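Consider the following input, taken from an annotated entry for Glyoxalase-like domain-containing protein (Maribacter orientalis).
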Amino acid sequence: MTFEHFALNVIDINGVVNWYCTHLGLTIANQQRESPYMTFLADSTDRVVIEFYKREDELAEDFSNRHPLTFHIAFVSENAEEDKQRLLNAGASYFEEILKEDGSHLVMLRDPWGMPLQLCQRALKF
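Applying the prediction step yields:
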Protein backbone atom coordinates (compact mmCIF):
# COMPACT_ATOMS: atom_id res chain seq x y z
CA MET A 1 0.00 0.00 0.00
CA THR A 2 1.08 3.56 -0.73
CA PHE A 3 -0.23 6.53 1.18
CA GLU A 4 -2.36 8.75 -1.06
CA HIS A 5 -3.70 11.67 0.98
CA PHE A 6 -5.22 12.91 4.22
CA ALA A 7 -8.62 14.64 4.03
CA LEU A 8 -10.22 17.36 6.13
CA ASN A 9 -13.65 18.95 6.07
CA VAL A 10 -13.18 22.72 6.46
CA ILE A 11 -15.56 25.63 6.86
CA ASP A 12 -13.86 28.06 4.44
CA ILE A 13 -12.74 25.89 1.53
CA ASN A 14 -11.66 28.76 -0.73
CA GLY A 15 -9.78 30.58 2.02
CA VAL A 16 -7.99 27.46 3.23
CA VAL A 17 -6.97 26.33 -0.26
CA ASN A 18 -5.76 29.81 -1.24
CA TRP A 19 -3.79 30.26 2.00
CA TYR A 20 -2.06 26.87 1.78
CA CYS A 21 -1.17 27.44 -1.88
CA THR A 22 0.00 31.02 -1.38
CA HIS A 23 1.93 30.63 1.86
CA LEU A 24 3.03 26.98 1.96
CA GLY A 25 3.71 26.46 -1.73
CA LEU A 26 1.12 23.74 -2.28
CA THR A 27 -0.52 23.47 -5.69
CA ILE A 28 -3.94 22.30 -6.76
CA ALA A 29 -3.63 18.84 -8.31
CA ASN A 30 -7.37 18.28 -8.75
CA GLN A 31 -10.39 20.36 -7.82
CA GLN A 32 -14.14 19.83 -7.96
CA ARG A 33 -15.96 23.09 -8.73
CA GLU A 34 -19.27 22.09 -7.12
CA SER A 35 -20.13 21.03 -3.57
CA PRO A 36 -18.39 19.50 -1.68
CA TYR A 37 -15.49 21.24 -3.54
CA MET A 38 -13.01 18.39 -3.07
CA THR A 39 -9.57 19.91 -3.60
CA PHE A 40 -6.40 17.83 -3.64
CA LEU A 41 -3.18 19.71 -2.92
CA ALA A 42 0.32 18.59 -3.87
CA ASP A 43 3.62 19.56 -2.29
CA SER A 44 6.77 20.75 -4.05
CA THR A 45 7.52 17.19 -5.18
CA ASP A 46 4.15 17.11 -7.03
CA ARG A 47 2.89 14.45 -4.64
CA VAL A 48 -0.70 14.87 -3.45
CA VAL A 49 -0.61 15.14 0.34
CA ILE A 50 -3.91 16.60 1.50
CA GLU A 51 -7.50 17.00 0.42
CA PHE A 52 -9.70 19.81 1.69
CA TYR A 53 -13.44 19.83 1.12
CA LYS A 54 -16.56 21.49 2.51
CA ARG A 55 -19.44 19.15 3.36
CA GLU A 56 -22.39 20.99 4.83
CA ASP A 57 -23.95 17.72 6.03
CA GLU A 58 -20.95 16.82 8.21
CA LEU A 59 -19.21 18.57 11.08
CA ALA A 60 -16.06 20.52 10.29
CA GLU A 61 -13.75 20.10 13.28
CA ASP A 62 -12.88 23.24 15.26
CA PHE A 63 -9.18 22.60 15.83
CA SER A 64 -8.67 25.96 17.53
CA ASN A 65 -10.03 24.38 20.74
CA ARG A 66 -7.86 21.24 20.54
CA HIS A 67 -4.24 20.81 21.54
CA PRO A 68 -1.97 20.60 18.46
CA LEU A 69 -0.68 17.23 19.59
CA THR A 70 -4.16 15.86 18.89
CA PHE A 71 -3.61 16.61 15.21
CA HIS A 72 -1.30 18.80 13.13
CA ILE A 73 -0.06 19.19 9.57
CA ALA A 74 3.74 19.26 9.38
CA PHE A 75 5.96 20.77 6.69
CA VAL A 76 9.71 20.59 6.19
CA SER A 77 11.35 23.98 6.66
CA GLU A 78 14.91 24.91 5.78
CA ASN A 79 14.65 27.96 8.06
CA ALA A 80 11.95 27.56 10.72
CA GLU A 81 12.49 31.01 12.23
CA GLU A 82 12.14 32.77 8.87
CA ASP A 83 9.11 30.67 7.88
CA LYS A 84 7.53 31.24 11.30
CA GLN A 85 7.74 35.02 10.89
CA ARG A 86 6.47 34.88 7.30
CA LEU A 87 3.45 32.75 8.26
CA LEU A 88 2.68 34.89 11.33
CA ASN A 89 2.61 37.91 9.02
CA ALA A 90 0.20 35.98 6.76
CA GLY A 91 -2.33 35.38 9.54
CA ALA A 92 -1.06 32.29 11.37
CA SER A 93 -0.84 32.36 15.16
CA TYR A 94 1.96 31.13 17.41
CA PHE A 95 1.56 28.13 19.74
CA GLU A 96 5.06 26.94 20.76
CA GLU A 97 8.48 25.99 19.53
CA ILE A 98 11.08 23.47 20.56
CA LEU A 99 14.81 23.55 20.00
CA LYS A 100 15.88 19.93 20.27
CA GLU A 101 19.27 18.74 21.51
CA ASP A 102 20.14 17.38 18.05
CA GLY A 103 19.80 20.90 16.58
CA SER A 104 16.30 20.48 15.19
CA HIS A 105 13.91 23.43 15.39
CA LEU A 106 10.19 22.62 15.58
CA VAL A 107 7.60 25.40 15.47
CA MET A 108 3.91 24.87 16.15
CA LEU A 109 1.55 27.45 14.70
CA ARG A 110 -2.14 27.57 13.87
CA ASP A 111 -3.34 28.56 10.43
CA PRO A 112 -5.88 31.44 10.29
CA TRP A 113 -8.71 28.90 10.88
CA GLY A 114 -7.07 27.37 13.96
CA MET A 115 -5.72 24.22 12.32
CA PRO A 116 -2.36 23.20 13.89
CA LEU A 117 0.57 23.61 11.53
CA GLN A 118 4.10 22.50 12.36
CA LEU A 119 7.35 23.65 10.78
CA CYS A 120 10.09 21.02 10.99
CA GLN A 121 13.68 22.11 10.52
CA ARG A 122 15.35 18.83 11.35
CA ALA A 123 19.07 18.43 11.95
CA LEU A 124 18.77 14.82 10.78
CA LYS A 125 16.32 14.74 7.89
CA PHE A 126 14.06 11.76 7.34
